[in-house]
Design a protein that fits this description.
Nuclear Transport Factor 2, Chain: A; 128 residues; 4-stranded antiparallel sheet; 2 helices; single chain
């Protein structure tokens, strides 16, 4: 389903929407993602989503942006539907821009996604 609860049948579009939701959903909203896989297991240490709009304050230094890129790469590749991700984050005029090239595990063409975040909003700038 897409964000308007419409059924998606195009597998590539499902991957793209899930990639977006992975980065635009506060982890608290998917609390069940940290539940253990079996009885008496410890909760999962890492969330399966982040909200880019909440990731940075009014400014960001190059180290913080590099760490954000590495965090997003790890988050994306933890999903078995994606085998590789290259992420670059920049911060200008109070807005975070994230440029991604993600390789789906099904062997289809790479997904190139550019997201922009300011405050609580995460927008798709471009998609290929």
């Amino acid at each position: 389903m897409d964000l308007a609860l419409s059924l998606l049948t195009d597998e590539r579009l499902v991957l793209i929407m899930d990639l977006y939701k992975m980065q635009a959903t506060p982890p608290e909203y998917v609390w069940w993602s940290r539940l253990p896989p079996g009885p008496n297991q410890q909760p999962q240490p890492s969330p399966v989503t982040v909200n880019l709009g909440d990731m940075l304050g009014d400014s960001a230094d190059p180290r913080t942006l590099a760490e954000l890129g590495a965090t997003l790469e790890a988050l994306i590749t933890s999903d078995p539907r994606f085998v590789d991700a290259q992420v670059e984050a920049t911060f200008e005029d109070g807005a975070l821009t994230v440029t991604e090239t993600v390789l789906p595990a099904d062997g289809s063409a790479p997904i190139q996604l550019v997201l922009s975040a300011d405050g609580g909003r995460v927008l798709i700038v471009s998609l290929a």
